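Escalated from tier 1: heme C holo job.
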Amino acid sequence: MIFCVKRFLSFLILVFGIAFIGSSIAGHKMHDNDLELDVDNAELVAEGKYWFARRCAFCHGGDGIGGKGPCLTCGKFTYSANTNIDIMTTISVGIPLNRGGSMGAFGTSMPAEAIIAVVTFMRAEEARRIKSGEVPDPYGAQEEAMVFPE
Ligand code: HEC
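Tier 2 regenerated the structure:
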């Protein structure tokens, strides 16, 4: 247990460290304090796609279009808030049964860098799908999708 907590803390430190360093990258983020993801970095996106296919596609469908688990590239997240930090936390700690979930934690079996790559891939794929009209744009359609609790 101590091991898990330590692992999670180092994950958070890494995430916020990268958020700080990365504040000059023009990537994807949901608000000023969200972790900015370098969605234009093709190498990082490809690495995320690789991890996604190995660890996530089984439940979330190829390219995250949904399956046993919800769509992760439709711009809608019902179990976590729609920020990069929240999504990464969900992947790291899972969704416990007492929160109505059944997805396990990946924070102990995937390096933090891989989780960041996976979310970068999800955001790049989400943008591509919205742009191509494959999925309706949830951000344009409803203003409240952009409002986050303080
Ligand atoms: C064993 C099946 C399974 C695997 C493997 C799995 N998930 Fe999930 N995931 C689910 C299910 C089912 C849910 C819906 C909530 C629940 O029941 O826990 C979910 C929910 C989520 C959510 C919250 C979505 C929302 O709408 O807020 C995220 C983010 C997520 N998964 C990401 C991932 C990523 C990234 C991976 C790979 C590292 C992954 N999951 C692997 C089954 C899985």
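Residues 2-19+34-146 form a domain with the Cytochrome Bc1 Complex; Chain D, domain 2 fold (CATH 1.10.760.10).
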